[in-house]
Write a structure and sequence with these properties.
Layout (H helix, E strand, L loop, with lengths): L9 E3 L4 E6 L10 H9 L3 E4 L9 H5 L3 H18 L2 E7 L1 H13 L5 E5 L7 H10 L5 E3 L17 E3 H17 L7 E6 L7 H10 L5 E6 L12 H23 L2
Parallel strand pairs: 2-3, 2-4, 4-5, 5-8, 8-9
Antiparallel strand pairs: 1-3, 6-7
Helix pairs in contact: 1-8, 3-4, 4-6, 5-6
């Protein structure tokens, strides 16, 4: 199956500090590519996989579920931990939910989490209709390209397949249950105006995780896909500071 232009996965071999980035639902690695390239330019080892069913056509996503998406990032994390001393996970929207689940389930393998506009809830009315509606209507309108910056577009699907949306709802329920297991430091970056995910999702994450080291920054000039928007550079800088602080702290504690 041919990939959409720009949807290719990205990887870079660098230092003993690795970063796994997870893209969002119906999106592709393109939405996080500038973030990944920034980290690679800083000399870090970076993995930005393409999630199953994404980056081609919406019919392919219709045949996948959250278990497939999570398995892909879990596999990428295992590959990073095999060759890196410290590994951080980050993501946008659903990708942030996947990153939080990795932290909850993989414990010490994850040094810290960077969550950009994390999505962990599903609209209530739409969610109630999904179990039946998904068997009647194959798709609904898309979610991509909620970007304030003019002339910038997100590569992804302009339709949301409802079978996949039903699975997404199940993923969010599971992630919410597991948030108390997240004890690693968390960096939250939330857009002031987001037409896809409500601010209450970030508040829920902040309140539910067990981490004592949680920092939140509000992005004033971006919409949902902030990694391609006007606050992208701030996301990159805050990620740099977060990783540098934690990697240095661990090294000092280990006495190396």
């Amino acid at each position: 199956m041919l990939l959409l232009p720009g949807a290719e996965p990205f990887s870079h071999e660098g230092s003993a500090t690795g970063v796994l980035l997870c893209h969002g639902f119906t999106g592709s690695p393109q939405s996080l590519r500038p973030w990944a390239e920034h980290l690679a330019d800083r000399g870090l080892t970076v993995s930005l996989p393409l999630l199953p069913g994404h980056g081609t056509r919406w019919q392919d996503l219709q045949r996948t579920g959250w278990q497939d998406w999570y398995a892909a990032v879990d596999r990428a994390l295992r590959e990073l931990t095999d060759r890196c001393e410290h590994v951080f996970v980050g993501g946008l929207s659903m990708g942030a939910a996947l990153a939080l689940r990795l932290a909850a389930r993989r414990g010490a393998a994850v040094r810290g989490v960077v969550a950009v506009n994390p999505a962990v809830t599903f609209p209530r009315l739409q969610g109630r209709a999904l179990p039946v509606l998904r068997h009647v209507v194959p798709t609904t309108r898309g979610l991509i390209s909620d970007i304030a910056r003019e002339g910038v577009a997100e590569v992804g699907y302009d339709r949301v397949p409802l079978h996949a949306a039903y699975s997404l709802r199940a993923l969010f329920a599971r992630v919410r249950e597991e948030l108390p297991q997240v004890t690693q430091p968390v960096l939250l970056l939330r857009s002031r105006v987001d037409h896809v995910v409500p601010a209450s999702d970030s508040a829920l994450v902040r309140a539910a995780v067990s981490a004592t080291d949680v920092t939140e920054h509000v992005l004033e000039f971006s919409f949902h896909v902030a990694t391609l928007d006007r606050d992208a550079e701030r996301i990159f800088q805050e990620t740099d500071a977060f990783i540098s602080r934690l990697a240095t702290r661990k090294t000092a504690r280990d006495g190396t």
